[in-house]
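> forwarded from #structure-qc
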């Protein structure tokens, strides 16, 4: 309840005149927006935004800043690994040699399309291959098992060309495939590959498991599909039907209708394949097969490349974190790809009792694993091989559809390359090799990142700030490193004359005008009066 004394005091305070506004700067008075004056800019007063605007600007600004920083660092890291291998592009190559070719194995990640694997290859792997001027071949697998079948088929083709099944007949070039024609042309012209290891790049854990399965199937399995031999055996063992008697009345048989004849003449349509080709050899039968006699003692090197991929709405925080930290993925992938491009250090895959991939990084060439020469399976346990734990952390990110059994009976397969445990045969795993970077190469990559070193055999260009480059291009700047100045005009006109003096040509210019001096900003008029005399 108000007291009587408080009423008049409040009325007096309300009736007190407000302080006069601060006078405006006369120079800016013309910019004020007023109905009685000419239209100009409003008189904007500086003030802090509201609470909601502060929250919005803080969140969006932090996200954009983190994104810009990550992409800038990612670009620097990719340039580091590209400069690490760029000197290979300048090496001379003979006319009868083909550039070293690596094979890249791609497979659609579980629960997603092939586009993600292609984008990963284009963003992280391809720039380093292009910088090293390496030829590459991409082998894709759209479904589970396609990559395994492709790897095994390529190995069986190598065995056939090596003469394991006997001498090959002379191919008909008119009907032969492109690979056969190319091989025939290269043999006729004397073109051969570089005397270096080729190597394989395998992207992702799912592709790695199929790659391992394909190597075992190719070198341990048969050259001919066992399923193709079963119908022939069944025909031979089937009981023959008794022949009709010659004395039977043949006139009693009636000819079938014409419609039935047409249906019988139509060739039966082949059913569309519902999945990849069946495996020639299951993992449970590895020990019962001998390794191919033409198998090399050491396979070409391989490099498993990280390919993390996670789906799901509940995994949005993890996906956002990875989206803002792609620089770390670029550094990891760049190191793996650069090791395969340089191919200067190759070591065998190790055996250990630990399941961490980092435990195998300290193993060097001083610990070789000699495969058995008699082709029999060694008695050593291969359950602790390094190949089993490569990129194993990616399996926990796989979509649940990878573990789901198909409902269609036609799609049910005897083996699942992605979800089945990896089975290794020591005769195969001991011959595999892995590309790694030596300590000297790692130290060199660190010096390149710090700006102390650049491409081998080249001088690092001087860094020109952006403002200097813009000033030299669009302003009056004369920075020599920013852009090249043309001080002599076109020499192809009538004012240019060439005199042949043996093997040397002397350019005699009668009139040269408008020569810009980059230091004094003056135009010099120069005219040559005499011809250049050279003995």
């Amino acid at each position: 309840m108000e007291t009587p004394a408080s009423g008049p005091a409040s009325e007096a305070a309300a009736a007190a005149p407000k302080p006069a506004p601060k006078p405006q700067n006369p120079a800016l008075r013309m910019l004020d927006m007023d109905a009685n004056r000419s239209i100009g800019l409003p008189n904007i007063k500086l003030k802090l935004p509201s609470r909601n605007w502060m929250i919005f600007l803080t969140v969006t600004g932090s996200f954009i800043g983190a994104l810009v920083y990550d992409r800038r660092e990612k670009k620097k890291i990719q340039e580091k690994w590209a400069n690490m291998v760029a000197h290979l592009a300048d090496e001379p190559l003979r006319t009868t040699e083909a550039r070293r070719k690596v094979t890249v194995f791609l497979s659609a990640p579980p629960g997603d399309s092939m586009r993600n694997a292609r984008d990963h290859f284009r963003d992280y792997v391809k720039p380093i291959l292009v910088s090293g001027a390496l030829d590459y071949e991409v082998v894709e697998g759209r479904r589970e098992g396609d990559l395994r079948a492709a790897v095994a088929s390529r190995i069986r083709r190598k065995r056939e060309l090596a003469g394991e099944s006997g001498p090959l007949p002379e191919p008909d070039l008119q009907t032969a495939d492109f690979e056969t024609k190319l091989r025939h042309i290269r043999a006729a012209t004397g073109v051969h590959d570089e005397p270096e290891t080729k190597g394989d790049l395998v992207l992702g854990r799912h592709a790695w498991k199929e790659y391992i399965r394909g190597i075992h199937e190719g070198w341990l399995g048969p050259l001919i599909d066992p399923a193709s031999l079963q119908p022939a055996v069944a025909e031979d063992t089937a009981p023959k039907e008794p022949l009709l008697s010659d004395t039977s009345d043949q006139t009693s048989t009636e000819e079938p209708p014409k419609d039935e004849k047409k249906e019988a003449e139509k060739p039966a349509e082949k059913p569309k394949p519902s999945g990849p080709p069946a495996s020639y050899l299951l993992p449970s039968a590895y020990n019962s097969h001998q390794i191919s006699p033409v198998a090399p003692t050491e396979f070409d090197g391989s490099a498993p490349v990280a390919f993390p991929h996670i789906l799901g709405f509940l995994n949005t925080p993890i996906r956002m974190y990875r989206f803002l930290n792609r620089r770390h993925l670029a550094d990891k992938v760049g190191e793996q790809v650069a090791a395969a491009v340089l191919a200067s250090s190759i070591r065998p895959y190790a055996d250990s009792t630990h399941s961490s991939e980092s435990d195998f990084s300290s193993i060097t060439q001083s610990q070789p694993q000699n495969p058995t020469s008699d082709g029999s399976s060694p008695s050593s346990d291969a359950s602790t091989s390094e190949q089993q734990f490569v990129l194993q952390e990616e399996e926990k990110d796989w979509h649940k559809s990878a573990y789901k059994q198909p409902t269609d009976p036609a799609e049910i397969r005897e083996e699942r390359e992605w979800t089945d445990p990896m089975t290794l045969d020591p005769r195969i795993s001991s011959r595999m090799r892995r590309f790694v970077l030596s300590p000297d190469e790692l130290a060199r990559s660190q010096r390149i990142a710090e700006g102390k070193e650049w491409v081998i055999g080249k001088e690092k260009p001087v860094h020109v700030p952006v403002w200097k480059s813009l000033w030299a291009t669009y302003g009056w700047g004369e920075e020599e490193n920013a852009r090249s100045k043309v001080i002599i005009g076109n020499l192809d006109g009538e004012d240019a004359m060439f005199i042949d003096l043996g093997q040397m040509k002397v350019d005699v210019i009668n009139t040269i005008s408008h020569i810009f001096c980059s230091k004094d900003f003056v135009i010099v008029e120069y005219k040559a009066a005499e011809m250049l005399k050279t003995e």
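QC bot note: The chain has two domains: 61-225+276-449, 484-527. Confidence is low (pLDDT under 50) at residues 233-238, 242-253, 353-382, 495-535.
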